[in-house]
Amino acid sequence: MSIILGIESSCDDTSAAIIKDGFLLSNAIANQDVHKAYGGVVPELASRAHQQNIIPVVDHAIKEANISKDDIDGIAFTRGPGLLGSLIVGTSFAKGFSLAKNIPLIEVNHLQGHILVHFIKLLAEKNKKPTFPFLCLLVSGGHSQIVIVKDYFDMEIIGQTIDDAAGEAFDKCAKILGLPYPGGPLIDKLAQTGNENAFKFTKPRIKNLDYSFSGLKTAFLYFIRDNLKENPDFITENNADLAASIQKTIIEVLFDKLKKAIVQTGIKQIAVSGGVSANSQLRKDLISNAKINNWDIFMPNKEFSTDNAAMIAITGYFKYLKKDFVGQDITPLARLHL
Ligand code: KG4
Ligand code: ZN
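# zinc ion complex -> structure
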């Protein structure tokens, strides 16, 4: 029997989770509302909030799992990528806990965590797991990648963004509409009452399986600016249609390359991960595409799409089984590849 405590603090969510033999016992998350007013995450404020939240969040996760601190066999933490000041808080906590309890310390790559989230076992339901190899569309605030997952720790990126990530595109377009950060979930909500064919935006033309979203964001900005000159109420009168139309374009861009990747690799098991995989239209389109094209699809519960420590704990659990541990000299890394 192995019990792993996972810690996630790479951006603006402080989270702790307990995994026992691959089963999730708890997943506590403290979101940081402090950034809303600034239109984006303020690194200095994020690290300060992590420092305040980390002990209560870990305490909550342990209590909810109905275990004691002494039952924990290993502690896993996000080493990167992310904001350095935020990562330092989780890393330092994990080091201290490992030292105090004399248990192994396990470093986790946040991106691997997003992908391995599909292997979390839930007590209440029998969720189907992908088998290797599968394709994962990893779409978050910092990354947009298509990955061939050959094994738990053998992953190959076959396409990725050359500029902004999909989540960034959602957030920046939301900001143009005057919505607070993070705008992705707000666009999702607004779009539900809008007409996705009301406005057309040109999709980027990028070779191979790579993505680009910065041109789309700029086109959206200029489109709004030009229309505001004619009608100062253009945004308020059309916000749902604008949200639905830009959301449709972003999702189409994501699916165009994903379909290409499926044809190229012949792999038909498709998983989605990362914050943008919480998007309701993306999920609907994935289901309808799967029916038409005979794909076997894997979507995490929305709670596990956005940043969470359950994904860090499950990745830590697989590393624990391999005895893949690190020493107290480990340091977090703002930049870290899959
Ligand atoms: O995976 P995540 O929580 O953090 C990173 O690792 O970046 O992803 C956060 C991103 C943000 O850009 C946020 O706006 C986007 O995911 N996001 C969404 C939705 N929920 C979160 N984008 C579109 N629709 C959503 N429902
Ligand atoms: Zn993430």
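# post-check
The chain is about 40% helix and 20% strand.
The pocket of zinc ion (ligand 2) is lined by residues 110, 114, 140, 274, 307 (CB under 6 Å).
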